[in-house]
Design brief:
This protein is 76% helix and 0% strand. The protein contains 14 helices and no strands. It is globular. This is Flp pilus assembly protein TadD, contains TPR repeats.
């Protein structure tokens, strides 16, 4: 008489175990899917940042081939092409994205950037002019400043540089650009201040250090400034100062600076040696 109850309990247990098994399988599937997405995101991040640019282009090309309608993958490919120095292809890729449904104002900024890299300044200005003023980003204003510089619209470029700096926590690069703009205008003291400020944000920005030497040399100040530098950087900056002195006719000073560069460099400094030999006739 107890068998039916016992059988019912057995059947109930079987159903419960089955349900638990199904729930477990769902959890496993979800976990595997999540892990796959995380791995894909990690690979994408590596390709966008530290991978060899050619490998990144190949990787993102495969991604686009597998899913040609995914705009994010197209953006990754366009960015990789620009990073790899394939500016024409990168510009075409960004143009295709801009022409697609779902494109954004930021895509227009990237298209303008690609045009500037290809020295297409008027075209870049046309693209930037189509972006509404409400789209206020560091990248947009950095490009606006560069375009204004190319047109020698100094008041506009100064305004855009100042705005761009206020929109980023890493302004070293744009400070260096602004300093170079001032240098080309002949305002060497303002340029020097901007280059020094750039170096305070990024002590490894050698371009700003080299530009700082040029700004000082334009006033015939050839001594090295007090900024962080390695021994090799010091030699290279002495070389830059030496060449600048020679260009301005300060030949004896140039010889001394070039000799200091040769003596300072931790290895053989062929460029400085050739420059000194040329000065010595």
């Amino acid at each position: 008489m107890r068998h039916p109850s016992f059988l019912a309990l057995l059947l109930g247990g079987t159903v419960a175990l089955s349900a638990c098994g199904q729930m477990g399988q769902t959890d496993v599937t979800r976990a595997v899917s999540g892990a796959a997405r995380a791995e894909a995101d990690s690979i994408r991040e590596i390709m966008l940042t530290v991978a060899d640019p050619r490998e990144a282009v190949s990787y993102f090309k495969r991604q686009v081939q597998d899913d040609p309608d995914d705009l994010d993958k197209q953006r990754d490919l366009a960015g990789a092409l620009i990073k790899a120095g394939r500016t024409t292809e990168g510009k075409q890729a960004w143009q295709s994205i801009v022409d697609s449904d779902g494109s954004t104002n930021e895509d227009l900024v990237f298209l303008a950037d690609a045009m500037i890299r290809g020295s297409e300044w008027p075209a870049a200005k046309i693209v930037l002019d189509t972006i509404p003023p409400t789209h206020e980003t560091f990248a947009r204003y950095r490009l606006e400043a560069m375009v204004a510089d190319s047109n020698q619209q100094w008041t506009r470029s100064d305004s855009f540089y100042e705005t761009a700096i206020g929109l980023t926590t890493t302004p070293a690069g744009v400070l260096n650009n602004w300093g170079y703009s001032k240098l080309t205008r002949g305002d060497t003291e303002a340029a020097e201040r901007l280059f020094i400020e750039a170096i305070t944000y990024d002590e490894g920005l050698f371009t700003a250090k080299n530009n700082l030497i040029l700004a000082r040399a334009a006033r015939r100040v050839y001594s090295l400034p007090i900024v962080p530098m390695t021994q090799e950087e010091r030699a290279q900056l002495l070389h830059t100062a030496g060449l600048a002195a020679a260009k301005q006719g300060d030949v004896d000073i140039s010889r001394n600076l070039l000799q200091d560069a040769i003596d300072t460099h931790p290895r053989h400094f062929e460029a400085a040696v050739r420059a000194l030999q040329a000065l010595n006739g």
